[in-house]
Fold each of these.
Amino acid sequence: MGYVDGFVVAVPAANREAYRRHAAEAAPLFMEFGATRLVECWGDEVPEGKLTDFRRAVDAKADEVVVFSWIEYPSKAARDAANHKMMNDPRMKAMAGEMPFDGRRMIFGGFAPILDV
């Protein structure tokens, strides 16, 4: 069932197109490094919770939208190899300085699927 890296980030609403372009430029690199699929989702209905929620998780400001994304890999080993390549690729380093959001508030993690229907 592969392996999934998941991400949640707050993006200024005014940066929607800049974020889409940034993701579109990065996607071919992720695929080159071994990803099989990359999905970026712009928040459409992200309710505030009573105890916790997506907005609080990334400290989203009033003018920011929550983005949920994931990258699929054939295996954890493939993901680990891709991450190593990304950290050493000058194209990725150049993109890191041009992110249209505050990367310090991004949450992320690796996940082993347990159900895929």
Note: Residues 16-33 form the longest helix (18 residues).
Amino acid sequence: MLNNEQALERAADAVARARRAGADAADAVFSADRSLSVSVRLGALEDVERSEAQELDLRVFVGRRSASVSTSDLSSDAIATLVDRAVAMAREAPEDRWAGLAPEDRLLHGRPPHLDLDDGAEVEPAALKARALAAEEAARAVPGVTNSEGAGAGASRVQLALATSHGFAGAYAQSSHGISASVLAGSGGAMERDHAHHSARHAALLDSPQAIGRLAGERVVARLNPRKIPSGAMPVVFDRRVSSGLLGHLMGAISGASITRRTSFLLDALGAQVFAPGVTIWDDPHRPRGIRSRPFDGEGLPVQPLQIVRDGMLETWLLESAAARQLGLEPTGHATRGGGGAPGVSPSNLYMEAGTIPPETLIGDIDYGLLVVELIGQGVNGVTGDYSRGAAGFLIEKGEITVPVSEITIASNLKDMFRALTPANDLEFRYGINAPTLRIDGMTIAGA
């Protein structure tokens, strides 16, 4: 693979060519990635996949008109053709008065922060196979596990570079490692399945394959012989496996595109109380070795830790430059690029601060309620905030987690859920989005 300097040369060359071809402004993203994955099932190798790819995404502006093109053919002739086509497309595109590069005075200058995101990801297939086999073996060794859907291990490395015609140039590499296992328990119509996985930027930070496999096995056995429960209103506790999904719905509602299009249930909520007092949500792109850490955003702006919700109050939208111009605000450093086209927005390492109450205490005073460990379907309306999803988990009776339950639906409205939410004190930084165990009272359960 190319190094940072070589990747940046590719992006900068495309920008320079675009300017010479008549573009008033341009930016380019060069990405190169390689990945290797191994899957096993029932102790035997099932598949080995290796891929390597390079891509150049070019965006050009002619006045307020713009066009974006992508190519994986990086020969000089192909780039020349690509540039000419992009400029010609831009001249025919409709005007967009909000379009343009990020403000020049806001660009990151100097050396970007070193976040230690790359360990090289030099892993041989034999080592990945050994990890996958160990994970599956540990899962199948759990009493009650009857079959396996398989286990896998993988490693990848991505090289990214961004160059703009108004002075930004930056590049970085990031690696990723992962292990997963999925197993079944029971038989016939009473069969259940569950899984476990872990990923990390550095292989040294991965949980052991044995721990991942054992967790998958224990999870599926605990779900055997689920019960149906009657419908009604009751407290719902979201396990850490699913609690981060609520933060994902928040991010969709406060993205620049949702606000400028007026398609968000939080449209008029900036500066207002959205969560219960005491709830604070951060986005931290500077976490060393973080799953979603980044030294700059997709427009070349600096990034920094940001409180999105402070003591329950919504403090900011997530804005790239075009949305910021339309709203008369400043971009927030959350622009992302991928697959060509204009930038979108995305958080980096997003998390809700831990509360002060142990999860056992959150559960302990529930006379009759539900602990959710799996959510099914996409029944969330981003315009109204209406929330309705299939779920599975465990019944809570007189403060104790008792029997597994399934084939239920939980419903409410995200506005009400956010205001009624109580976080436990068990936050763990394990994924790109993290939240502690969460309790929400008064949700509607549709059961038997």
Note: The two ends are 56 Å apart (CA to CA).
Amino acid sequence: MFARLAADLVVLIHFAFIVFVIAGGLLVLRHPRVAWLHLPVVAWGAGIEFVGGICPLTPLENALRRAAGEAGYAEGFLEHYLLPLIYPAALTYEVQIGLGLFVLLVNALIYGIIVLRRRRDLRRGAGD
């Protein structure tokens, strides 16, 4: 029972991590110091996609599922949980590259807004 709950918790943490990778820059808009945590997370998330690797949380979840008497899965977290919702076909390296580029693009746009806001605020402060 504990192993299954732990595996489910790992899934929730994994999902929250992915959401933070993709949209954490929105939190940085409100709390700029979060960038020190978010930027390395973006690098990790995009890097995992670019090299075609899997996040260490996937083997952890699988080990917990096996300990609970359940079957794990051979593919990665995205393939197992998210891609069936988004893509009908299996995850390919090309799709992973696209996901990595998507992560970088979304965050480049958000951080671009942050830079533009800071410049605007500096100009306003210098003009006072």
Note: Residues 2-127 form one domain.
